Structures are given as C-alpha cells and as structure tokens.
C-alpha cells in the first residue's frame, strides 16, 4: 500500500466549514470506492488543506477510478477551490500487501482479519487483495456492502482475539455457516460472482475442534460432503459445491489464519 498526500486549495472568502463539508463528502466517497483505506487525517496549512491517506496502489487516487459519487463530489469541490487539488505519492508502506496485478484470476475469496486494512476481495492466483475499484460495482455504485461486511468481520475477529466477554460471539459469527455475518458474506460472494463471472469462495473460520481425530472426519457444513484437501488452497479445505474454504481447527495446527491467508 502507498501513503499519499492530497492537497486542496480553498477559494479565498469561502468559509472553512463550507469547504470542509464538500471536502468530507469527497474523501468519504474515495473511501467507499476503495481508493483509500480508512487511516487518514487532515492538516490545516495557511491557505491549503492537506489530506494524508493510504491507498492500495500508486495510482489509486486517479480520477478514472472515481465512483459516480466521488466524481460528483470532486466537481463540487472544484467550484470552491482556487485550483485543482494536487496528489503527491509519499512512498510505499513497508510490510503491507501489494495489490493483485494478475490479468486473469481463476477465483476470488472473501477474507479479512482484525488487523486488515486492504480490500477483502483476494485473488486466488497471487493471494493478494484486489482493489475494490478494479471490480464491477454493486447496484448503489459503490462498495458499501463489502466494506460494511469487512467492518463487522474485523470487529468480530477483534472480539475473538481479545478472548474476553465477546470471544465466543465473535467466533460464532466467523465460524458458523448460519450466522448473520456468514450469510451476508456469502450473499456478497454470489453477487460478486455474477458481476465478475469468476467463482468467489467464502472462508469459514475454524479454530476450535473436538479432537484431531474428529477434525479429520469433519465434513462440509453446507452439503455434508467430504472436504477436498488442497495444499495449493491457502486454508487447506475446500468445497466447490458450497464455494467454501475452511481449515482444520487451528488449535491443532499452531497457526494464525491471517499469516496463512496472506
Ligand atoms: Zn492476483
Ligand atoms: Zn459443501
């Protein structure tokens, strides 16, 4: 991922509050379009406003990636600016995932975890996140649905990782086929599959198991078939009928799902 500095130049005489209203609408649209990730802040200069943000790719902020809402907000912002905003790429951020550059992807999978800030749509070939603006848009013209699912998933994973009062709630949401989070995630997979024409798998988390023996016999909770064991699949278990990925209970593997997936 890349750190960028976006500088804005408000017209003289425009109230700061009025300018900021249009500004927040624009940067909100950038985030909902997957052009930035939600770690940003603004710095007030003498006659400028600097917005620093993190982007999946070097050219993420280009206008050609704007959603309908971002394009509209950008036009509005230009009317209260002396000149066009300037983008400066500060540099690549160490130890963050590179965006997928594959020309063709055999499949995608939906995956995130409590520390993840990348796109949750991952390429099955290179296992790197696919920036959302490179995917066909949902009906509302943005990616709110995917980002909303990711936010809830990250929160559930945080509850699980904290091992406190919400641990089992978070775990159930991520591991139960019938949880609201799983249902929502699988609906998104189906919708994305229709738009891309590429299979989209959903990862069903698995940390606890009754025993190693029982784990070996465990079947797909969707159709009851035997899981296909596949080393090339980052999680290990796969069901093509249900478009599910899962793993042998991680407590028996001494592994962290986030490090296995990316
Ligand atoms: Zn790829
Ligand atoms: Zn199945």
Describe the model:
The chain has 262 residues and is of the alpha+beta class. It folds into 2 domains: 91 residues, 2-Layer Sandwich (Alpha-Beta Plaits), CATH 3.30.70.100; 154 residues, no CATH class. It is 32% helix and 18% strand. A 6-stranded mixed β-sheet has the order 6-5-7-10-9-8, with helices on one face. A 4-stranded antiparallel β-sheet has the order 2-3-1-4, with no helix packed on it. A hairpin with a 4-residue loop joins strand 9 and strand 10. The mean pLDDT is 91.
The domain count comes to 2
Q: How many helix segments?
A: 7
Strand neighbour order, sheet with most strands: 6-5-7-10-9-8
Determine Rg (CA atoms, Å).
21 Å
Mean pLDDT: 91
Offer a few descriptive terms:
32% helix; 262 residues; elongated; 7 helices; six-stranded mixed sheet; binds zinc ion; 2 domains; Alpha-Beta Plaits; alpha+beta
Short note summarizing the structure:
It is built from 7 helices and 10 strands.
SSE inventory with pairings:
Elements lengths: L1 E7 L7 H17 L4 E8 L4 E7 L12 H12 L6 E7 L15 E3 L10 E3 L20 H19 L4 H9 L4 H17 L3 E4 L8 H6 L10 E2 L7 E3 L4 E3 L10 H5 L1
Parallel strand pairs: 5-7, 7-10
Antiparallel strand pairs: 1-3, 1-4, 2-3, 5-6, 8-9, 9-10
The protein binds zinc ion (2 copies).
The site of one zinc ion has 7 residues, from loops.
């Amino acid at each position: 991922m890349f750190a960028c500095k976006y500088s804005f130049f408000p017209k003289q005489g425009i109230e700061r509050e009025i300018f900021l209203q249009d500004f927040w609408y624009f940067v909100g649209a950038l985030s909902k379009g997957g052009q930035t990730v939600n770690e940003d802040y603004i710095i007030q200069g003498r006659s400028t406003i600097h917005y620093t943000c993190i982007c999946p790719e070097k050219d993420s902020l280009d206008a050609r990636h704007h959603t309908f809402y971002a394009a509209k907000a950008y036009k509005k912002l230009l009317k209260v600016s002396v000149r066009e905003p300037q983008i400066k790429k500060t540099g690549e951020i160490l130890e963050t995932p590179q965006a997928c550059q594959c020309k063709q992807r055999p499949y995608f999978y939906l995956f995130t975890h409590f520390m993840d800030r990348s796109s949750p749509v991952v390429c099955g070939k290179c296992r790197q996140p696919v920036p959302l603006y490179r995917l066909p848009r949902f009906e509302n013209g943005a990616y709110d649905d995917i980002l909303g699912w990711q936010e809830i998933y990250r929160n559930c994973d945080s509850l699980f990782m904290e091992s406190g009062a919400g641990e089992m709630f978070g775990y159930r949401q991520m591991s139960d086929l019938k949880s609201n989070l799983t249902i929502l995630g699988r609906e998104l997979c189906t919708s994305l599959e229709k738009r891309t024409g590429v299979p989209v798998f959903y990862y069903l988390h698995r940390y606890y198991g009754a025993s190693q023996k029982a784990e070996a016999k465990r079947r797909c909770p969707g159709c009851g078939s035997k899981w296909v064991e596949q080393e090339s699949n980052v999680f290990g278990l796969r069901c093509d009928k249900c478009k599910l990925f899962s793993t042998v209970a991680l407590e028996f593997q001494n592994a962290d799902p986030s490090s296995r997936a990316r």
